[in-house]
Description:
This protein has eight helices and four strands. It is of the alpha+beta class. The protein has two domains: 3-101, N-terminal domain of the delta subunit of the F1F0-ATP synthase (Peroxidase, domain 1), CATH 1.10.520.20; 106-178, no CATH class. Strands 2-1-3-4 form a four-stranded mixed β-sheet, sandwiched between helices. α7 links the parallel β1 (106-113) and β2. α1 (3-19) crosses α2 and α2 (23-39) crosses α3 (41-48). Its main location: membrane.
Amino acid sequence: xxxxxxxxxxxxxxxxxxKNQKLEEYINDFGEIVHLLKNDENINxxxxxxxxxxxxxxxxxxxxxxxxxDEKLLNFLLLLLEKKRIHDAEGILTQLNKISxxxxxxxxxxxxxxxxxxxxxxxxxxxxxxxxxxxxxxxxEIIDKTIIGGVYVRVGDDVIDGTIxxxxxxxxxxxxxxx
Length: 179
């Protein structure tokens, strides 16, 4: 929702993690915390309860997480509680992962096919995408029977749609225009 703010918080956490040489630990621990925030009924009740003060929420978080996560990450969580941004934790995690990929010159390519790509096809596609974007490619493979055949690739906002479904829809539009 507030992508710009999420990114600012994520960048701050990234820099602290990098400075303390605990970046991967922070990303993993924060990911687990976000999972808890989304799925643990008790934590949700505490976070969302209007009659529990922020200071009480902070005490509860201290009891839960102290000694289990790095102190600086705990301080970050407490800051999110204080600034009433704890509900934005998932967006912050998303931005944190994006920043990490950017800093390591990596990009995620969402690849949709009807059947899994062979290792040779993955290698070929990775080298072509890597040359185009000048980044290391990380595949996120999705099997999608609705595309009929071919390959759909999304890298950031760029889409390469080489699916049969897309080609059929394009032909249909052309044929309907001519009538």
